[in-house]
Amino acid sequence: MKFSYSKAKITKDWSRYLDGFEIWKPKHLLRCHGPLIMGVCLDSLRDPNAYKPVFHFHNLAYPSDVITLSLSGPLLSRGVYQPVKIQTHSEKLPGIVSQLKKQYPLIESVGLSFNDYLRTISNYLSGKHGTVAAFRPNIYRDIVLLALYCGATDYANDSIIFLYNDLRNRTDYNMRLIGTPEKWKDEMQTINQSNVIATVESQKETHKLKGLHDFGLVFESPIEVEIVTKLNPS
Q1: What is the pTM of this model?
Q2: Neighbours of 154 (CB within 10 A)
Q3: I need a surface site. Which of 55, 63, 70, 100 has the fewest CB within 10 A?
Q4: pLDDT tens-digit readout, 163-194
Q5: Domain boundaries of the chain, sorted by first residue
């Protein structure tokens, strides 16, 4: 049977192994942590008889028409993504879920901290979760927005300056999409905690996420934001 025909059942099968995750739509299992959505997406492939499990985060603190996979990693085997064949799905699912949890331990940790998120970004940018095409301005933006949401204004302001200086020293072609690093900094400095909280609540309404249990996001003894800039310089 093709994945397009069986995706609802397969999503339900996955839900039995993912504590705290709820079925949002077929192919999407989500868990809410304040402004962050942690998800497992069962992504379609060109092969209609297979799918690809992907662990990801989506930040509700920035407006979006869709739940994104911009910070994500697939199930890997020897450095390349591992597809799941429909015909062996039921038989192999326990082992597949175990593999995904081993690669992305946060799936099993009901609690989530700001530091966990920074380490996830660091792993993502280092290539630990496979080849990526990272758009750093957006990743850096999300770090600032999460700090503001948590009420850590000083940390957010310090991060803006540090990350702005990092962007100034890069030559990514995609930097043109934000205009200039100065523009990025100026836009970040106009946002406050109230703006961010309002955006998160609005995004929960837009994406029909109000029914999800919120497991919260902990902001304690934050590690230096420098952790996300040390790897893969442009």
Answers
A1: 0.91
A2: 9
A3: 63
A4: 999 998 887 656 667 788 999 999 999 999 99
A5: 3-108, 114-228
